[in-house]
Amino acid sequence: MGERSKSSKGWCGWFLVLVVAAVVAVAIVLFIRKKSDNSDKAAPVPGPPGAIEEKYSDALKLAMQFFDVQKSGELEDNKISWRGNSALQDGSEAKLDLSKGMYDAGDHIKFGFPMAFTATVLSWAILEYGDQMDAVDQLEPAKDSLKWITDYLINAHPSENVLYIQVGDPKADHKCWERPEDMKEKRPLTQVNTSAPGTEVAAETAAAMASASLVFKTSDSSYSDTLLKHAKQLFNFADKYRGSYSVSIPEVQTFYNSTGYEDELLWAASWLYHATGDHSYLKYTVQNGKAFANWGSPTWFSWDNKLAGTQVLLSRVNLFGAKGVSNSDNSGLQMYRKTAEAVMCGLLPKSPTATTSRTDSGLIWVSEWNALQHPVASAFLAVLYSDYMLSSRTAKLSCDGDSYKPSDLRKFAISQANYVLGENPMKTSYLVGYGDKYPKYVHHRGASIPADATTNCTDGFKWFNSKNPNPNVAVGALVGGPFLNESFVDSRNNPMQGEPTTYNGAVIVGLLSGLVTTSSVVQSFT
């Protein structure tokens, strides 16, 4: 009995030793893993485009087609069977050809402010992710759509201090429901000039021209030079004759009211610096940063507010370095980068400074009208900043003492993209044509009327009021999206949720291009 008891105690002792050893081993592994996760060692720089993520490839190919849906003018190589030539006389009253460009949303107005923003964001996407686009045969379509807008913008700027910023009468247009091919109403022109300035729209158009000049620099140097000439003139006009177009032309407040022009001046100067290498533009952003940039305060990137975009774009200069940048300019760039990091920290859901502007499922949600603009634009900036960190070998982002990696930003961007593509409580894709379930009653005149129907201004409303789904698919349209409670009403009479916009098209193309495959970004656009 005594011998058995001693043997049993010995066995128990060894068992305890083994258990303790196992616990210690697990603790060491977890410690090493945690230390590895929190190490200052940067992740490897991605090489050329890698494996294609089919989900994002399919979505990108659809999203790119929405630009074709929105084109005005005499269409070339038309890929949308239900679209045809339209607005061929636009600009004729001023002896200008303003037939090109794109319709803004489900209506037939050409609003220059959001259209120029569309061109700037599309240019940015091409410059950062052209290789990824090319890997899925979407680079040339992107450049073609960009040029369709910039051809219009060039013609809309007939002299140094005159810019046509709108074609059509929005109030009259909204009383009609007809195909653009059948429009017979007057299409009045609206301009900004020295006596009726519009700093924000002139500066945004300068940003569009400057960024596009980089896109076409190698493939069409003459066209690139033309764009850059217009960009410089428009920036000078915007800066010299400061004034909001919402004040000069009160009518614009109803549709695209501007909350200020300072952000567009910084945005345009940033793009002109990238396009020219002229340090005077960089100095402009630094010298005016304290007054204009709202340093330290995160903002939402949109057609109206370019601050977050500017902060990310100038962070690129700070992260990758640039020749000839003075210490004082570097200090200013550091402030832009710190504010960009504050934006990123606000987006990361587990960050101490995470924004509370989200749905229960994690979608960034800021505005009831066109709700998806902000999460998609935010995700685009997040994937950009993630790639800037990777390509510059920047290991960490610090948010009030907590550290996050580039992969955390990419994970956030993926979550927003996946929500749009159907991973949401409604189980619906908000990108028209993607997946099995997507909006069928999109608020879009051309999509809602049969291609063989002939309508005048008002008799097309029978199609608006029809209970049948749209006869034409507005392929690639990103609709407005869900309410805060994540509900969505698919109704033609619900433009708040169901109307797509061309500028939404630009940010979703940018986001999907960044996610379609992994790749490093270039250190310089030139």
Which secondary structure elements does this structure contain, and how are they paired or packed?
Elements: H1 2-37, H2 54-70, E1 110-111, H3 112-135, H4 139-155, E2 163-167, H5 170-173, E3 189-192, H6 199-215, H7 221-240, H8 245-248, H9 253-256, H10 262-276, H11 279-287, H12 289-292, H13 307-320, H14 327-347, H15 373-391, E4 397-399, E5 402-404, H16 406-420, H17 445-448, H18 461-464, H19 495-498, H20 502-515
Helix pairs in contact: 2-20, 3-4, 3-6, 3-20, 4-6, 6-7, 6-10, 7-10, 10-11, 10-13, 11-14, 13-14, 13-15, 15-16, 15-20, 16-20
Mean pLDDT: 93
**Which value, in Å, is the CA radius of gyration?**
26 Å
Q: What form results from the Cα inertia axes?
A: globular
Strand content: under 5%
Strand order of the largest sheet: 1-2-3
Number of strands: 5
Which consecutive residue ranges, at least 5 long each, have pLDDT under 50? 1-9, 26-37
Helix and strand sequence: HHEHHEHEHHHHHHHHHHEEHHHHH
**Tally the helices: what do you get?**
20
Distance separating the two termini = 88 Å
Provide the structure class.
mainly alpha
What kind of sheet is the major sheet?
3 strands, antiparallel
Helix content: 40-55%
